[in-house]
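Long-time lurker, first post. I've been practising inverse folding by hand and with some scripts of my own, and I keep getting stuck on stretches where the structure tokens seem ambiguous. Below is the full token string for one chain I'm working on. Before anyone asks, I'm not after the true native sequence, just a reasonable design that respects the backbone. If someone could post their per-position residues I'd love to compare against what I wrote down in my notebook.
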């Protein structure tokens, strides 16, 4: 087993693998932040480093990980009527009637003008 002369730090753990994992998780958080279908809950990035020495305390096992907690998708809600269908209970979505942009009673149909007037 060969020992590296460079002191261990966050930057060089496993040749930079931990920092690469942090970048990947950070990008996931940014994508989640920009998603309009997610809630406005906080996002979290967690870096864990566990160091366990051997019995002689000459070496140590270093295990690192990076994880993130993203905001969940927004709930999608609707209303439904409970009724019967084919002799069995069933749900039927209640859709709101959107108001019309125009008042049809005030619209004059377009057509050819009578030029004989």
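-- Answer (accepted) --
I ran through it position by position. Result:
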């Amino acid at each position: 087993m060969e020992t590296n002369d460079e002191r261990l730090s966050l930057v060089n753990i496993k040749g930079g693998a931990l920092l690469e994992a942090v970048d990947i998780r950070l990008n996931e958080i940014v994508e989640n932040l920009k998603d309009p279908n997610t809630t406005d809950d906080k996002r979290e990035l967690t870096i864990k480093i566990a160091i366990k020495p051997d019995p002689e305390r000459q070496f140590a096992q270093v295990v690192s990980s990076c994880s993130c907690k993203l905001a969940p998708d927004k709930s999608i809600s609707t209303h439904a009527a409970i009724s019967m269908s084919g002799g069995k209970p069933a749900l039927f979505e209640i859709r709101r009637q959107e108001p019309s942009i125009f008042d049809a009673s005030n619209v004059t149909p377009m057509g050819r003008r009578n030029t004989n007037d």
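A couple of notes from the structure itself: Residues 42 and 71 are 7 Å apart (CA to CA). The longest strand covers residues 44-53. Happy to go over any region you disagree with.
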